[in-house]
Sequence to fold (156 residues):
Amino acid sequence: MYFRCIELLESRGVKIDDIVECVAYLQKGYDLSSTAVMREAVENVIRKREVQHAIITGVYLDMATERKEIKDDYLYHILASDYSLYGVDEVLAYGICNLYGSIALTNFGYIDKDKPCIIKSLNSKVDGVCNTFLDDIVGAIAASAASRIAHGVKIL
Ligand code: MG
Fold:
């Protein structure tokens, strides 16, 4: 499943390194972890089963939207237009963050508002492309990886 998720993300234009870049963005001003540490944290997040389920569910819905397989017109319109008040894409992403505590949720809110690195390009509207769920999934993985790093820092 881990490799299936990596392949699925890559098929949607998201590489591990793109997510690591988002982690580095979140870590600015805090613990300056090496790229290897951030990469390991991202990989660990993606190894969790619930995270894998969120990835395949969200990406499937994005792809089904692109293929016009969503038979409910109202829902299709919401997904295809990435309607800002839909909110279910963020709720799916919380499912990832919830596994990593309150820091992950705070990080997610920040990254969702700022939309740095690859999240910005995932969010830009391109005809026929739907990344309604993917941008939040990527943000949540980065937010969770940063939280994982924060929890590993010794304070005493
Ligand atoms: Mg979204």
